């Protein structure tokens, strides 16, 4: 099994870039080449602004290019919990905006002809237990109260959709779908370039400072001076000297992709092409790609110390969920990091004049990342913060992040070990 990302091997979009070489002066500098940064660059350049995007590695190198590829609506939190935490007005606005996020993503894909295996056949949130089904029933009632057209499926309907008899029911969301996430991210960058944005890769930022009425962003190979700045590194912020350093809990998620299923197997497994994840505390996910590979994911770092535990778990999990695929070989494995916040709500921190950091999608990166990136560009260009899906704050801090990250990784490893005995 190759310890490399399937998405890197199967991508159909490319974005030709070079490192920064020299100094620039622009309207907007974006740091980070994931969904947030690329959608911001696309929006700003499309509005006529001069834009420079700086990425330390390659476009989509971080969580965006390691994503499961589920284009979901909303957050992990059910709508009522979002509103309880944020208040009626702000909470309902966020629920509505992120309910429309899949439409925004698929509209961009169509508008810019992004080749990313876009499939909009919905997603299934699977009940791993009777208690999980009760939770889905609450989400069903809340979601439909706020305008979603969700369907609550029983065990028989869920087995028919998934090909697995392991689940007690499911919540079907027709707004959602799946994509090849790295191709989508590269396609956003290509579209941003076509709109006039300058994109520089292999260009890590060392230092961000305020100089007069502008922001100065220093790299080893040049300096970018800008009226406005967007920090969009999410879980991959590292080594930048700046006035504000985003704090979050880094949580690893690993994935394993099988060899392509046969035609007969594809008729039995996810025949409708939905993407799936379950209600377990240490959750898992599965979906198909365009070539018919089954991609199984779970909490944990498959490149870390507990790598053997997570790899053995994946083998067992595949056999438990789809017994007929028990012998199917895995061809790819990879891990990525999620930026979790304590309340699971994304953050927009305005840490200086015309400077924002956007992060903390807590595992829902595609729809929210695209929406927040677009909105941040609009807010910085117009000066109107009403474009943003959440209220702006001057600061945000998460405490004990290393301890909490270790707790998640240890918990995932323990859960995957325990599953060997059940």
Low-pLDDT stretches: none
The number of helical elements comes to 12
Helix content: 25-40%
State the total count of DSSP E strands: 18
Count structural domains.
1
Polypeptide structure, described:
With 422 residues, the protein is of the alpha/beta class. The chain has one domain (6-418): FAD/NAD(P)-binding domain, CATH 3.50.50. It has helices spanning 6-10, 35-46, 79-86, 88-99, 101-111, 130-145, 155-162, 181-194, 263-268, 307-321, 366-382, 401-418, and strands at residues 24-31, 51-54, 70-71, 123-126, 151-154, 169-173, 177-178, 198-200, 205-211, 214-219, 222-231, 249-260, 275-278, 284-288, 293-299, 330-340, 347-352, 355-359. Helix 2 (35-46) links the parallel strand 1 and strand 2 (51-54). The mean pLDDT is 95.
Properties at a glance:
oxidoreductase activity, oxidoreductase, 422 residues, FAD/NAD-bd_sf, FAD-dep_OxRdtase, alpha/beta, eight-stranded mixed sheet
């Amino acid at each position: 099994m190759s310890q490399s990302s399937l998405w890197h091997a199967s991508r159909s979009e490319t974005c030709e870039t070079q490192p920064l070489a020299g100094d620039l002066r622009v309207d907007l500098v974006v740091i980070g080449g994931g969904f947030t940064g690329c959608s911001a660059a696309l929006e700003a350049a499309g509005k006529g602004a001069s834009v420079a995007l700086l990425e330390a590695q390659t476009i989509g190198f971080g969580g965006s290019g390691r994503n499961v590829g589920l284009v979901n609506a909303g957050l992990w939190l059910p709508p009522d919990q979002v509103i309880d935490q944020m208040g009626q007005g702000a909470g309902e606005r966020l629920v509505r905006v992120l309910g429309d996020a899949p439409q925004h993503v698929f509209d961009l894909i169509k508008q810019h002809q992004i080749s990313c295996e876009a499939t909009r056949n919905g997603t299934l949130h699977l009940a791993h237990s009777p208690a999980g089904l009760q939770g889905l029933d609450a989400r069903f009632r809340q979601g439909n109260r706020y305008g979603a057209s969700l369907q609550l499926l029983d065990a028989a309907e869920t087995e028919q959709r998934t090909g697995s008899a392991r689940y007690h029911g499911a919540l079907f969301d027709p707004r959602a779908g799946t994509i090849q996430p790295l191709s989508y991210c590269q396609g956003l960058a290509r579209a941003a370039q076509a709109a006039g944005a300058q994109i520089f890769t292999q260009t890590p930022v060392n230092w961000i400072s305020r100089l007069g009425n502008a922001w100065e962003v220093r790299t080893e190979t040049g300096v970018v001076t800008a009226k406005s700045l967007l920090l969009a590194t999410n879980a991959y912020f590292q080594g930048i000297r700046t006035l504000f350093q985003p704090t979050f809990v880094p949580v690893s998620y690993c994935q394993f992709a099988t060899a392509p299923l046969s035609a007969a197997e594809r008729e039995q497994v996810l025949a409708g092409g939905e993407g799936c994840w379950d209600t377990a505390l240490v959750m898992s996910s599965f979906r198909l790609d365009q070539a018919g590979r089954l991609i199984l994911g779970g909490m944990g770092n498959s490149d870390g110390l507990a790598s053997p535990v997570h790899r053995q778990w994946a083998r067992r999990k595949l056999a438990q969920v789809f017994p007929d695929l028990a012998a199917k070989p895995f061809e790819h494995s990879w891990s990525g990091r999620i930026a979790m916040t304590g309340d699971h709500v994304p953050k927009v921190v305005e840490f200086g004049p015309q400077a924002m950091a956007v992060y903390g999608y807590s595992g829902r990166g595609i729809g929210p990342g695209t929406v927040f990136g677009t909105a941040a560009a609009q807010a910085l260009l117009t000066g109107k913060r009403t474009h943003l899906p959440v209220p702006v704050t001057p600061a945000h801090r998460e405490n004990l992040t290393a301890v909490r990250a270790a707790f998640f990784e240890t918990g995932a490893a323990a859960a995957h070990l325990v599953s060997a005995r059940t």
